[in-house]
Design brief:
The complex is a heterodimer. Chain A is an alpha/beta fold. Chain A contains 9 helices and 10 strands. In chain A, a hairpin with a 2-residue loop joins strand 4 and strand 5. Chain A is globular and about 55 Å long. The two termini of chain A are 30 Å apart. In chain B, the strands form 2 sheets. In chain B, strands 1-4 form a two-stranded antiparallel ribbon. The radius of gyration of chain B is 21 Å and the shape is globular. Chain B starts with a helix and ends with a helix. The chains are: A alpha/beta, B mainly alpha. The structure holds adenosine-5'-triphosphate and magnesium ion.
């Protein structure tokens, strides 16, 4: 389904992602872990097209997408939620999600139709907001939402894209404990559908343990371990590379 | 019905609605309410600048594009009609051809500028448009065989738009309905149609993408929108509207030159209209254009009267001298921008929110 081959990016002399080869399969949730600065977000940026690789390839459904721009990759089914909240600040929560539904609907160059008349788009957007327990905040301008609600909105936008590949980058970071279950439930529900490829960057080991089918460990931009959760969590390489780093850095 | 006409983009403030109704009614009845050459000239300018400001708002307010080439497209429309009428016969065929050619050139040029330079940062794009517009203004004055150079072109308009033309024998409401009034209504109706069309565009699914791009272009790309394409299409629409506005003014003035269409002062005026009226609202363009054109045309008169009245008080009389009008206009702008950062429309809507 999704595959990277020797994926590398250098910033100056420093390889932030260094020759990562890995394949991700439908129906599987892969947790990507590693200390702060390991290159997890950069790896995501290379996959979804925000950054261009120095070398290596990215393939989606057998198709080489290495040189495609981000919008093309999104339309091919790569969905991305961002670690740093990244919304349309002066638009309402509903409008934020409606734009994602619309991007996914193909009705994008409609110049003379009235957006407010596309009830179906707004209804679908509303359903996605409800899925993250944000329906009651639909009319709020997104910049005025609390941090936790903004994180949920970030997830709702990803849901609205209805992608084949879901990429979550620390979806619960900085959220209050009350808000976390709503987001984890959403991820569990996507996983339960069985046909989606899910990549989850997450520092919290309990979350990883609860959701992941497989763990990939990045360290200094390199893939240092890959396997079933129980095995990876018990292994030395993770204890050194990840748990050591995470203990001092907390979760960012 | 009204809702459909406004494309669900309602004023959302009673005061704003009232002001808009007054402006539209005053413009619709201008030849009868304010007879006289000067006031009709002001009314035409208001109509034309409402279209210009609204189309500029599509770029600046809705899409977040800063362009200094808007008057270039305005000029292209004006010269299109002027050259067609001066070279061919003064008939409707020439008007249609001139307008069509002007719009086509404007759209193609906007598309080229857009596709080549909308990838760069806002500030660089603004500089590129400035360079292209300056080059165009120089070109227009150099190609004097075609454009009349610095003097511009004078030409005759179709029969029905000439002063000697009479639609009906005798007067209507005490006013002779001549070709000037016919021209006025042509300008008014086309302007109205253009503004309503642009309101339709900004409330369409396409328009909502423009706002998304203004808010966060990076995220718009990440959810699948190719921002360059959207920005370019928006530029083309704005350029087409500006070109038609230029064509309308050319028909009214029967003269087209660099000063009437291409001057950088006009560009600054348009920018101020949009900012003072309220960016990203469309209605702001209507208010801003009306206010600025009225100020430009009547502030001097008002000041002359005030200066007369204060003739005994030396400093005040001097400050109110008509030659100081630009100073006062400047002051008015600064106060406006300082106290109404969201423009007049934003201010009126906020007042409703509290009231
Ligand atoms: N655009 C860039 N220019 C230069 N260096 C960059 C850039 N983006 C990332 N880096 C560097 O690449 C390395 C990996 O960063 P990245 O954000 O991918 O880490 P991460 O694993 O997501 O960390 P965290 O857990 O803190 O989110 C860091 O050293 C970072 O400074
Ligand atoms: Mg990160």
């Amino acid at each position: 389904m999704l595959e990277t081959e020797g994926l590398t990016i250098r910033f100056g002399g420093h390889a932030a992602v260094d020759g990562v080869s890995c394949a991700f399969h439908p129906g599987t949730l892969t947790a990507i872990v590693g200390p702060n600065g390991a290159g997890k977000t950069t790896y995501f940026n290379l996959i979804s097209g925000q950054l261009a690789a120095t070398s290596g390839r990215v393939r989606l459904k057998g198709r080489d997408i290495t040189t495609l721009a981000a919008p093309r990759r999104a339309r091919l089914g790569l969905g991305r939620a961002f670690q740093l909240t990244n919304l349309f600040p002066n638009l309402t929560a509903l409008e934020n999600v409606r734009l994602a539904v619309q991007a996914n609907s193909g009705r994008v160059l409609d110049l003379l139709g009235r957006a407010s008349r596309h009830r179906d788009l707004a209804d679908r957007a509303m359903a996605h907001l409800a899925a993250v327990a944000l329906a009651d905040r639909a009319a709020a301008v997104s910049a005025t939402l609390s941090h936790g609600d903004q994180r949920k909105l970030e997830v709702a936008i990803l849901l609205a894209l209805e992608p084949d590949v879901f990429m979550f980058d620390e979806p619960t970071a900085g959220m209050s404990v009350d808000d976390v279950p709503a987001v984890l439930d959403v991820i569990a529900a996507i996983k339960a559908r069985g046909d989606k490829t899910i990549l989850l960057v997450e520092h919290k080991m309990d979350v990883v343990r609860a959701l992941a089918d497989r763990i990939v460990v990045l360290h200094h931009g390199q893939l240092v371990a890959d396997g079933p959760p129980a095995e990876i969590i018990a292994s030395d390489v993770v204890r050194e590379a990840y748990l050591g780093g995470a203990a001092e850095a907390g979760h960012g | 019905m009204l809702r459909a006409l406004l494309s669900d983009n309602l004023p959302r403030s009673r005061w704003l609605a009232a002001v808009l109704i007054v402006i539209v009614l005053a413009l619709a009845l201008a030849p009868f309410l304010f007879p006289g050459a000067k006031s009709l000239n002001v009314a035409v300018k208001i109509c034309v600048f409402i279209v210009l400001a609204a189309s500029y708002d599509l770029l600046l307010g809705y899409t977040g594009i800063v362009s200094f080439a808007h008057t270039m497209f305005f000029g292209i429309g004006g010269y299109g009609v002027a050259i067609a009428l001066a070279r061919l016969a003064p008939d409707w065929g020439a008007v249609a051809l001139g307008t069509g050619a002007g719009v086509l050139v404007a759209v193609v040029l906007a598309a080229l500028i857009g596709l080549f330079s909308l990838r760069v940062r806002t500030i660089f794009f603004a500089m590129i448009t400035l360079a292209v517009a300056s080059a165009f203004a120089i070109l227009a004055s150099q190609l004097s065989g075609l454009t009349g150079g610095e003097d511009g072109l004078n030409y005759r308009v179709p029969e029905a738009l000439r002063p000697a033309f009479r639609l009906v024998e005798g007067d209507v409401l005490g006013v002779a309905v001549n070709g000037r009034i016919m021209t006025y209504y042509l300008v008014f109706l086309v302007s109205l149609a253009l503004v309503l069309a642009m309101m339709r565009v900004v409330s369409s699914p396409f328009g909502s993408v423009l706002m998304a791009i203004r808010e966060n272009a990076f995220r718009a790309e990440a959810i699948g929108y190719r921002t360059v394409v959207y920005r370019t299409v928006a530029s083309c629409i704005a350029a087409a509207a500006a070109a038609v506005a230029g064509a309308l003014l050319a028909l009214w003035l029967r003269h087209t030159g660099p000063d009437t269409t291409l001057s950088f002062d006009l560009m600054i005026d348009i920018l101020l209209m949009v900012v003072i009226g309220g960016m990203g609202t469309m209605y702001g363009a209507v208010l801003g254009a009306t206010l600025l054109i009225l100020a430009q045309n009547y502030l001097q008169d008002a000041m002359a009267a005030a200066s007369q009245a204060a003739s005994g008080v030396p400093l005040v009389a001097n400050l109110l001298h008509p030659d100081r009008w630009l100073l006062w206009l400047g002051l008015l702008f600064i106060l406006c921008v300082y106290f109404f950062p969201t423009g007049i429309v934003g201010r009126l809507r906020a007042a409703r929110g509290r009231g």
